[in-house]
Protein 1
Amino acid sequence: MKKFLLLWFKAYRAPFLTASIAPVFLGTAVAWYELHQFNVVIFLLALFGTIFAHLGANIFNDYYDHLTGNDDNNPDFTPFSGGSRMIQNGILTPRQVSRAGLIAFVITAVIGIILIGYSGRPALIIFGVIGIILGYIYSAIPVKLAYRGLGELTIFLAFGPVTVLGAYFVQTSHISWLVFLTSIPAGLLVALILYVNELQDENADRCAEKNTLIVNIGNPQKALTLYRIIIFAVLIWILGLTLLSYFPYWTFILIILLPKIIRMIRISTRSFVHIKELLPLSAETISFQFLMTTLLAGAFVFAGFIR
C-alpha cells in the first residue's frame, strides 16, 4: 500500500498542490474578512474539489506532453520540470495515466455536485466547469493552449480568479471587487512557478513547438528580467492596495518575506550555464507562492476577527 500511494503521489505530482491550496485559503479568508462568513464543511469540500481538479490537470498534462513528444524528448528534466516521468520510465502506460486523469476529474465533479447540494448555490457549477476545462485544454490535443503561447495566461486564470473567486463565492453566494483584486497576485504567483520551470524546459519545448513565453522571449537573461518584474508587480499591487485601504493593514506582515525576495532576486541575476543551476530558483519560487498567498490570507483572517 505504501508503494502504491507513493507511486500515485509522484504520478499526480502532488507536491505542486500548494499552488492550488493557497488560493482556496485566500478566497475563503476574504469571505471571512468582508462578511464574517465561514462554513468549515463548504471550505473542505471546495478545497478537496480544487485539489482533485489540480491532480487531474497535472496528470493529463503528462499524458498529452507524452503524445506530443515533449517529455519523451526532454533530456534536461528536473524535479520541477519535464513531467512525472512515469510514462517515460515505463512505470505507467499512457492508458493508465489518461484513466487516472479522468478519475481525478470525475471525483472533482462528484465533490462539486455534493458542494452545490450542500451550499444551495447552483451557480457554483460555473467555476467548477471553467476550472476543469482550463485544466484539461491547457495541454489537451487539439486545443493545447500551452503550445499556443497561452499557457501562462491559462494558469493565471485557473489559479487566480477562478479558484480565489470560487472559494469566496461558495461561502458568500456573490462576488466582490475586493476578492477579485486579491485574486490577481495569487494568479501571478502561480504563473510565476510555471514560468521559471519553463526555463528548464526551453530546449525540449522549442523542439516540440511548444511556444511558451520563455520560448517566445528566446533569451534566458531577458526572461529572468521579466521574472523580477513580475515579483515587483505583485509587491507593488499588494502594497498599493494596502496603502489605499483596500487590503487590511495587517497585510504588512508580508514584510517578513523580504529576505526571501532579496534571495530570489539575487539568484535570478546570476548567469546560468547548466539547467540544474535553476533548481534553487524553482524551489524558492514555489515556497514563495505558498508563503505569500497564505500570509495574505492570514492577514485577512486576523483583520476579520478584530474588524
Protein 2
Amino acid sequence: MDTTDPEIQFDDNGICNHCRRYEESAKKRLHYDKRGREKLNNLVIKIKQEGKNKRYDCMTGLSGGVDSTTATYYAVKKFGLRPLGIHVDNGWDPEVTTKNIKNIVKNLGIDLYIYSLDWEEFRDLQLSFLKASVINWEMPTDHVTAAAIFQVAREKGLRYIISGRNIVTEEILPQSWSYNARDLRNLREIHKRFGSIPLKNTPTLSILGWIYYTFVKKIRIVPILNYVPYIREEAKALIKKELGWKDYGEKHHESIFTRFYQGYVLPKRFNIDKRKAHLSTLINSGQITREEALEGTKKLLYSREQIEEDKDYVLKKLGLTEEEFEKIMSKPIKKHTDYPNNQFLFSKLMTFAKLAKKITT
C-alpha cells in the first residue's frame, strides 16, 4: 500500500493502519484452532439437523470466482452439506464464468438457481452511478446481489448462506477506494437524480430489511473460509482438478464490467490500482512476499487489445457513445456523501453491527 490511499497512516515502526487492521481482524475472525474447528463442526451439525427434512439445508452464492467456488467445494465435499447454489446474473458474465458455474454444479451434484436481473432497470442503475461521478461503480452489483440472495433464502426457507467472504485474501481495502454498498438511501438518491427507469423489479435491501433478515428470519452468513486454512493458489489448483474450473485472471475478473472497472476505470480516473490492496492482504496472510507483490504490480492488468475489446463491449451494452463515456470520465469526481446518504445512521449503529457480526461470523 502507498499514498494513493490518502488516509493511510504509519506508526513509529513503519507499520501502516491496514496491516494493523488485518492483524486485529485475523485474531478475531480467523478460527483455525481447535476451538474454531469445534465451532464449525457444531454449526455444520446444526445446519444438517435443521435441513433434515428439506431438499436443501443451506444456500451458497456462486459467482464463478475462486472464493465462492472453494467455499462451495468445502461445504459439499468436506462437510457434507446440501446447498442450493445461487447465481445472480447481472448481464456481465463472460463465457469462462458461465462455463465455470456449469462445471461447479455438475461436478458437485448440486442444483442451481439463477436470479436474472431486469436488464433495462439494472443498466439504468449502473449508468446513474457513472453519471454521478462517484467511485464505487460496483455498488449497484454488490447491493442488488446481497438483496437477491437474502430474498431467495427467505423464499426457500433457508437460514444459512455459505459465503466465500474471507480475511486472508480480502481484508485490506481503503475506505476512500469504495463506499458502503448497504447504503440504500445513497443508491436510491443517485438513481433518482441520474436514472430514468423506476426500479420495480430490482431487489434492494434497507437497514430495516437487513435487521429483519438477520434478527427476525435469523438468516446467517457462514464465511466458511475463515474456519479452514485458505491458500488461494492451492485452492485454484484444487478446483481446477476437481471441478474443471478455469482461471479468469485477476481477482474479481469473473465479470466483464468488474474487469473493465478495476483494470481501466480505477487507474485512469481515480488513480487506484486495486491489486495493491489484494496483494497486501496476501502479504499479511503469508501467501506471498512483499517483493513478489511489488513485482506483481509491474505486470499489465490485461492487454491493450483486451482493454479495447472490453471498452467497446461495455459501452455498447450500456448504450454509451465514446464521446459520452469520455465526458463521464472527465467530470469532476464526487464523493458518495455529496449525495443524500445514511452514513451517519450506519456509524450510530456500530454497536448493533457488532452484535450482528457475532451472529453472522
Protein 3
Amino acid sequence: MKEEIGRVGKEQQFHDSWAEQVDVSTIDVDKIHSALTSPELRYIHRQLGDLAGLDLLDLGCGLGEASVGFALRGARVTASDLSPGMLAATAELAERYGVSVKTHLSTAENLEFDAGAEFDIVYAGNLLHHVDVEETVKRIAGVVKSGGRFVSWDPLKYNPVINVYRKMASAVRTEDEHPLGSDDLKIVEKYFSDVEFRFFWLFTLVVFLLMFLIDWRNPSAERFWKIVVDESDRWSWLYVPLAKLDQLVLGLIPGFRWLCWNVVIVARK
C-alpha cells in the first residue's frame, strides 16, 4: 500500500507545483512592497524602518518577493522554505534584481540552523496559518536576537463571507490551512513582549467581491490576493475611500477587527 503523505509532504508538493507555474520574470517586487493594495507590507516597512545591515530571516519565503524587497532595502536576508521549488524561484528572483539572498531549506517547526544562529528580524508572511503555530513561534523566538523583532501577517478565521470564499478557492489553497484565531495571537504574546496587532481589509473586501461579480474570475483558478496587488492602480479609486472607512470603523468599534481578512503582528523580544 502506498504510504500516505503527511502534512509537510503535502505542503511541499503544493508549493513546488506552484513554483513551477510561475514565470519569475513577471514578478514586480517594488509593486508588491509599495502598492496601495499591499497595506500589510507597507505597514511592516513603517514599523521596521531602516533595514541596512540587519540580519533578516524570511521564514516561509515562497517565491521570494519579500526576501528580495528586504534585500533591496539593505538587509542581509536568509530565505527559508520547505519547498525546494520556491527556494529556486527566490534565488532566480534575487539574481534578476541584483541582490544577494541566502536560501535555507527547512520547515518552520524545525529551522535546522547552526547553534547560535540569530537574526535582528524574523519575517513570516502568510506562514502561520500553514504550520503548528506554537511550535513555530517558539522556534522563531529562539533565533531572534535580544531586542530583535518578529513581524508577520496572516488571515483570520472569523468572517463568514471570507470563509465562503475559502471553500470556493480550494484549488489554490492547501487542505491543512487554518486561519488564525484569538488563541493563536495569545501564543505570540506568550513568547514575545511589546506585541502589537494591526488589522486590515474589512470594507475594503468589497474589492474582492467586485473581482468575482464583475470580472467573473474563478477564485479556485486565480489567487485573488495576488491579483489585487497586480491590479492596484485599477482598484485605487475604490480601495482608498474604503480603507479610510476601515480605519474609522475599527477605531470606533474595535470588535469589528475580528471580521477583517488579515492581521499583522509586530513583536519585540
Protein 4
Amino acid sequence: MSEERGSQRSPEEAEGLPPGAEALEAGADRGSPRERVAARLEWQGAACRLLASPFYGSLLEKAAADVQSGGPAWSVLGDYAGAPRGWMLGLRLMGAVHRLVLEGQAPDLARFYGSMGGEPGEQDAWEAFRRVLERHRDELRLLMERPVQTNEVGRSAGLVGGFLSVARRFGLPLRLLEVGTSAGLNLLWDRFFYLADEGPERGARPATWGDEASRVRLGGIVGAPPFDVQGVRVAERRGCDASPLYPTSEDDRLTLMSYVWPDQTERVDLLRAALEVARLNPPLIERAAASDWLGSELSEQRFGEATVVFHSIVMQYLSPGERERVSETIEFAGSNATEQAPVAWLRMEPGGVMAEVRLSMWPPGSEALIARAGYHGRPVHWLGDGI
C-alpha cells in the first residue's frame, strides 16, 4: 500500500508506544524546525524499537541528535520540517539510505545491514550512516520524494483463515479483489505455505495448509484456522492502488526491499521469495482510486464465484470520505448478493496493540472478528469465524 500525505499514523507508529512517545509526537508540531524534525525521528525510533528493530531505533535516535546539532542529518531533512506527520519523514529517510545500500553505493554501511548479510553494530553503524548522509545528500533528498511503499506478505498469515472460511461457506471458486494492493503479493496467498501451532483447541484440524514447495512459509499462527478446507480454486485475482508497483520491474522490486527494516531478516527473506512467486505469476494491478475501482468491479453480480474484497492496513490512509464510499460500495454489493453470487469483505486493520481481522459475508450479512494479528502479520491468534 502506498502511504499518502495526511495526519494519520502509520501502523508502525500507531499503538502501544513506550512511555514518553506521545510527548515526542506532540513535539513534532511545536518548537523550531530542528526540534520538530528531531521529535519525528525520535518518535519513529521508539516505534521501531517497539516493533523489534533496535537497529533502526538506534540510528533514528542518533539522527535526531544530529539534526539538533546541525549535522548532515539536518542538511538532508531540513527542508522537510513542514511536511505533515503522515509523510513519515523517518521511514522515508531510512528507506532512501537502505536503497543506496542495496544498490551497492554504501559498502561501508552495508556491512551493518542484515539485508546484505551484515551484523548491526550501533556506534560503528551510525558513523557509517552519517558519512552516507554527508556524501549522498542530494541523491537522498531526491529519493525521499518517493512515498513509503510496503507490501507486507506476512499479513497473508492473518488473512488466510478468512479466505478459507469463504471457500468453506459457499463452495465456489474465489474472485479476489484487493484494495491498496501495492505489488499484489497478498493476492497470491494461496501459493504460500502456512503452519499453525498445535494447541488444545485444534481438535482434528491439520496444522498446515498450502503449497509445501513454496519458499514463502508463514508460521506464527496460534489456534485452529480452517486448514481442513482443500481444493480452493481462485478464478480471478485483481488489485488496485493509488501508486502501484509491479513485481516484474527491477526498480519497483528494489523500492519494496528498501522499505523493509534490514535487521528483520525474516521479513527480507519472505519479501524476496514472494517477489519471485509474483514475478512468475504477476496478478493484474490497476492504478485507481479504491471507491471508483470497486464501484466498477462490483457493479454486476458474478454468478458461480464468491467475490472477496480484501485489504490489510489500508483504510487509515484513505480520506474519511473515501473510507465511507468504500464501505458503502461493498455493503451495497453485499445487499444484492445471493448464494450463487456471494460477496465477502475481509479486512485486517488497526485495532490497538494488534490489528483486527474481520470477515463479513453476504448472504446472510454476518460479521465476525476472526483473528488478531501483528501489524507485520505474525503472530496471528485465530478466534474462529462463527460459521
